[in-house]
Amino acid sequence: MITLAPREFHLFQAAGRDFLYLVPSAAIFALDDITSAVLAAVTETKRTEAAVVDALAERFDGATVHEAVADLLAVRAIGYEHEPESRTPRVLPLMPASLSTGRSGVIPLTTMVMNVTNQCNLACTYCYEYGEDKIVDTEHGKKPKFMSEQTARESVEFLLRESGTVAHLTFFGGETLLNFPVLQSTVAYGRRRAAELGKSIDFSLTTNATLLRPEIIEFLVENDVGVTISIDGPREMQDRFRVFHNGAGSYDVVAPKIKELLKRHRSKPIAARVTLTSGTLDITRIYRHLTEEIGFGEVGFAPVTTSPGQGYAIGERGFDTMLAQFRALAQEWLECSLANRHHGFSNVTESLEEIHKGVSKAYPCGAGLGLLGVSTDGDVALCHRFAGSDAHKLGTVRDGVDRDAQVAFLERNHIADKTDCSRCWARPLCSGGCYHEAHVRYGTTTHPNLHYCEWIRGWTDTCLRLYGELSERNPAFLARFDREEAKAEAVV
């Protein structure tokens, strides 16, 4: 007797109907009444196809049930119990034909994050670079405190050598603007060299906004440099952790500078990046302040990266609070999107874009793949958070990427080797979470971030429901993701 059994999927409801998120493929299907009924019957207990027909005989005729079973088998929502479930092959995204000759098979570098300084004029309590959880000694270590113009140029050459036709360079720190002269010269050099090579390059930076002088703002505007500003919200939230070395708060310094930048720089969205802690979880209030009072068009939130013993670390109840507030703000985002109005809660937009594109990750992010970080001396690391760490070094801008080290990292960190993740329905979008957080929490990049699994699953379910609502009520909104991808491909 051959019975049917459910395969890997996540069932969710939106717009008054059932949807399936098929985990191995990251595909989404809207179910009609018959496929919902068949799936429920098979999930309730293992049945033969004939038994499914009998169970649903009062509602549907046999031919319709058989057709629905065939549809669900075709998309692998169900399968025959005696047949093993298909497993995603353990394939590395990077496997050069030869590690010693040529670049065949190498994924191009799309984004280079260049740490132009490892110094900062703030002393943020929770900072992963300078706080108790730091992994690199930027005060007494051997790395130069500021990147030289020569190293910056070598970094540009490295990026253009390793990239495709489009390259992205993000300036980072420390506080990026402490080394503004090198930033200025690098933009000019990068544009000239990209043009000579027939490539395009764009620039962005992250800053705490304390050093945004008029001439700097003018430079950013004239050169169309994208800007992300680290800010935590209203005065009392900002000044709780984001303080100067003498303990003074930074809000009154940065607020007028940010408003001036927003007034002048209109070619690209200026994004706010908020670090959430156990003491700053009033997400709706933070969002309202940053959008309505400061003027940001995009606001993204991220929980603080820290070891669990720190007082500002977010515990289990904190993640529950964060999820509830994310959901409330996400509902507001949905209402705006249904009416084709902009809403700046970028966490939703980024997640829905990945869902729409069917992203299914073997790795949590581009670190060590299409994204690399460069330290002040030109060492290449997994990402900017590991810049300067010898243990996470993947080469130098002068000698290129150490392909053996890169492949070894990808071998060690594949999701197939994360037992707790390999059967989780949310793995296509999470894949275990941030390497740096895993290193801080568990001492190794290979460990999944188990402390926020329920949060990730809850947030992914929320975003799937939003996607389902839009697909039924305003599918044209989702088409913008296709247009943006087509535009990007046209540039390439």
Task: Give an account of the 3D structure.
The chain is an alpha/beta fold. It folds into two domains: 77 residues, Outer Surface Protein A, domain 3, CATH 3.90.930; 294 residues, TIM Barrel (Alpha-Beta Barrel), CATH 3.20.20.70. Helices cover 41% and strands 15% of the residues. The strands form three sheets. A ten-stranded mixed beta sheet has the order 11-10-9-8-7-6-12-13-14-15. It has a three-stranded antiparallel beta sheet with strand order 2-3-4, with helices on one face. Strands 1-5 form a two-stranded antiparallel ribbon. Helix 11 packs across helix 15. The N and C termini lie far apart (54 Å).
Instruction: Give the % helix.
Output: 40-55%
* Overall number of structural domains: 2
> Radius of gyration from the CA trace?
25 Å
| Count of individual beta strands | 15
Instruction: Tally the helices.
Output: 16
CATH class of the largest domain: Alpha Beta
Low-confidence stretches: 95-104
The first-to-last residue Cα distance is 54 Å
Order of strands, main sheet, comes to 11-10-9-8-7-6-12-13-14-15
Which shape, going by the Cα principal axes? globular
- Main sheet, how many strands, which sense, barrel? 10 strands, mixed
What is the averaged pLDDT score?
92
Q: What is the CATH third-level topology name of the largest domain?
A: TIM Barrel
Say which CATH homologous superfamily of the largest domain is assigned. Aldolase class I
| CATH architecture verdict of the largest domain | Alpha-Beta Barrel
